[in-house]
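Crash report, auto-generated. Payload:
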Amino acid sequence: MLDRINNIQKEEKAILVGVIQKEQKEQQLTEYLDELQFLAETAGAITMKRFFQKLPHPDSRTFVGKGKLEEIKTYLTINPADLVIFDDELTGAQINNIQTELNVKVIDRSDLILDIFARRARTAQARVQVELAQYQYLLPRLRGMWKHLERQGGGIGTRGPGETEIETDRRIIKEKIALLRKRLTEIDKQSFTQRKDRGAFIRVALVGYTNVGKSTLMNLLSKSEVFAENKLFATLDTTTRKIVYENTPFLLSDTVGFIRKLPHHLVESFKSTLDEVRESDILLHVVDISHPQYEDQIKVVNKTLQELKAQDKPTIMVFNKMDLYESQNFDQWLEDSVKEQIRSEMRQRWENETRGNCVFVSATERKNIDELRESILNKVRESYQIRYPYKSEFFF
Ligand SMILES: Nc1nc2c(ncn2[C@@H]2O[C@H](COP(=O)(O)OP(=O)(O)OP(=O)(O)O)[C@@H](O)[C@H]2O)c(=O)[nH]1
Ligand SMILES: [Mg+2]
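Recovered output after restart:
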């Protein structure tokens, strides 16, 4: 059972399955599945087909209805795949039931995200955090997953081999969780001491949905070389750089991206990485304006910030990938004046919503970066002013 922790193999063929409630639009599901497909691709899997179903609520036994499961099964007999990925979190029993029915590996969105995180983890801290989240995710699902073995093993009232196996696995996992927690506490102590040394500086954190361009902006603003890539969760570890603009120093941190339905345990075990966000003075909330669901993504980020109790910090909304937005939305025959009007309306709308705290940029084309620098500088200066009201210059 513990082999569920194993990574997805490269080039595995996958089938995606999503369910939407009656009131949701199909368009929304398509976009959800696009994201799931991108996640699968990031994990190294190739999507062969996508299935979806409209249901008032998911089936407690098999998540999708009986008919849909039959349909998937029929497809699989003609087009063998290596795994089926569900867009929502499944219970242990559901995983087991579907797996028995389809005779193929079944994972859910959380599994997939955990897998990507495991693959991407570079530092000891990130590795321990991911492993902890994986075991915590697995623990409540053990019983369901073992159930069919139990049925085959002992009769009513007997302790079949399945039961012993569950107990053994559960004990191993609990011990592992305790060990990982202890190790994480030790690592946290070290990073806390490191962070404490930075006390005098105003701290700015880049936050946002995954793949919006945080690391690209970090590199641009700090002239550093943080890994940026068109994959989800390219960044798992926090990178911090000291920057000085016009004699004003501050610290800029790049952080892990957020996503819709981020597994709860992952947020919990990444708490220490996310401390950078919690302890920062200013947030740069980066948005990929070219993404069709960018407004939803803003909501997801705001909700996650709320969970971290970081929602009330001074924030600049950085609308990135303007170049892509324009190449997607502006017809080449469109007159410049019309383009300018569209830009100006968009700007006006967000200026109102953010009370003037927004900038529209393109990190890759280096457009409007000076305006972004200026906005950051103003916010940083305001923060120093509040922290050290009697100082007029800030040299450290
Ligand atoms: N067209 C365009 N692409 C951009 C822009 N900024 C970033 N990108 C691309 O978007 C992809 C993601 O960029 P990253 O900087 O890795 O994004 P991130 O927010 O750090 O992503 P995670 O670390 O995965 O959360 C990369 O392929 C970048 O080259 C931009 O302004 N325009
Ligand atoms: Mg990044």
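Post-recovery validation: The two ends are 54 Å apart (CA to CA).
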